[in-house]
Amino acid sequence: MVVITSDQRDVIFDAVRTMYTAVADQPEQEYHFPTGRRALEYVGYPPEYLDRLPDGALESFAGVGYPFAAGMVRPGDVVVDIGSGSGTDLLLATLLVGPAGRAIGVDMTAAMREKCLAIARSAGLDNVEVLDGNAEKIPLPDASVDVVTSNGVINLVPNKPAAITEIHRVLRPGGRVQLADIVVADLPSAECRAKPQLWAECIVGATTQADYLDMFRAAGFDGVERLGELDYFAASTSSSTRQTADGFGAHSMVMRATKPE
User: Fold this and answer.
1) Which of 43, 144, 237, 253 is the most exposed place for a label (fewest CB within 10 A)?
2) Domain containing 237 — which CATH number?
3) Secondary structure class of 70 (helix, strand, coil)
4) What share of the chain is helix, strand, coil (3-state, %, to 5)?
5) Are 220 and 260 a contacting pair, CB within 8 Å?
């Protein structure tokens, strides 16, 4: 186990902010992971949903799977999207919760927050809120939301148990979780994991699928279930990224869980 110091944690978060600021401001650039509508279609989003979302929300998409395959969002729900980015999943959640529900985005990258909020306002959505925060400290009260969704975020978080405990805290009893994230078959070396700059690459900070699911069980969740997995990095245009992902058995998975009543 690698202990991440507070200084390293800050460098990790700074590297992540830098990466996703670029994705927000320069969506046309090529990155080591797939982005935009091409990525959305690859990971499984139905075209009929994508056609209902603003292009600006789609162009900076950098998620790793289709968490809505878990079927956890219902009309009237309050949904929080951790790492909401440019708002693809957040705005999709608004379609599913309807006017009686609410969608709250949490993101630590200012450029993504600003882009997401501007898109929501231009679309006339007044039941969307975007907050500054990260997965280790969600800026919401206890037991305040019905569903937590997230897409490719927990793998970037140094203290994963803290993030999962926060998810449990903000959910109401009976609340639901749907996540897509990166996991690995073989953990990167301690030397790699101790280099904060490498965490933004999405692989170095990932844990194994078994440990990932066990952390949710340890935090008190029921019905922890992996729904499927995808060779996500096969869609990368970077041969070195594909090779690295293959070496660690890195792939994305979709899971769901429930907070006990």
Assistant:
1) 237
2) 3.40.50.150
3) helix
4) 45, 20, 35
5) yes
CA 166 to chain centre: 14
Q: Is residue 243 part of a domain?
A: yes
Residue 150 domain boundaries: 6-258
Q: What are phi and psi of 227, to 5 degrees?
A: -100, -25
Nearest CA among 192, 176, 169, 171 for reference residue 68 = 176
CA distance 94 to 101: 7
Q: What are residue 35's DSSP bridge partners?
A: none
Q: Is residue 189 part of a domain?
A: yes
Task: State how far the alpha carbon of 223 is from the alpha carbons of 100, 212, 261, in Å.
Answer: 27, 14, 12
Q: Nearest Cα to 183, choosing from 222, 157, 163, 155?
A: 155
Q: CA of 222: how far to CAs of 62, 136, 217, 256, in Å?
A: 29, 21, 7, 9
